[in-house]
Amino acid sequence: MRLLYAAIAVVVIGLAAALSIWATLRGSLPELTGEIAAQDLDAPARIERDAEGVPTIRARSRRDLALATGFAHAQDRYFHMDLMRRSAAGELAELFGAALVDTDKKLRVHGFRRIAETIVRQSSEPERELLEAYAAGVNAGLARNRVRPWEYLLLRSEPRTWRAEDSMLVAFSMYLNLNDSTGEEELARARLRSVLPREMFAFMHPFGTEWDAPVVGGVWRAPPIPGPEVLDLRTGEARTAAITAPRSLAALEEKPFAGSNSWAVAGAYTRDGAALLANDMHLGLRLPHVWYRARLIVESEGDAARDLVGVTLPGLPLLIMGSNRRVAWGYTNSYGDWTDLVAVELDPADAGRYLTPDGSEAFTSRRERIAVRGADAVPLEIRETRWGPIVDKDEQERPLALAWTAHYPRATNIHMLNFEAVRSIEEALGAANGVGAPVQNFVAADAEGRIGWTLMGQIPVRANYDSTAPASWRAPNTGWIGWRSPEQYPRVVDPPSGRLWSANARMVDARTSVDFLGDGGFDLGARAAQIRDGLLSLSQASAEDMLAIQLDDRALFLARWRDLLLELLDERALANQPLRALARKRIERWSGRADANDVGYRIVRAVRLQIRSDVFETLTAAARVQHPGIRFTPSAQFEAPLWRLVTERPAHLLDPHHQSWTQALLASVDAALKDLMTSCAELEQCTWGKQNMLAMRHPLSAVLPFASYWLDMPPEPLSGDAAMPRVQGVAFGASERLVVSPGKEEEQGYIQMPGGPVDHPLSPFYGAGHSAWVEGKPAPLLPGDAQYILRLTPVH
Question: What is the CA radius of gyration of the chain?
Answer without folding.
Answer: 28
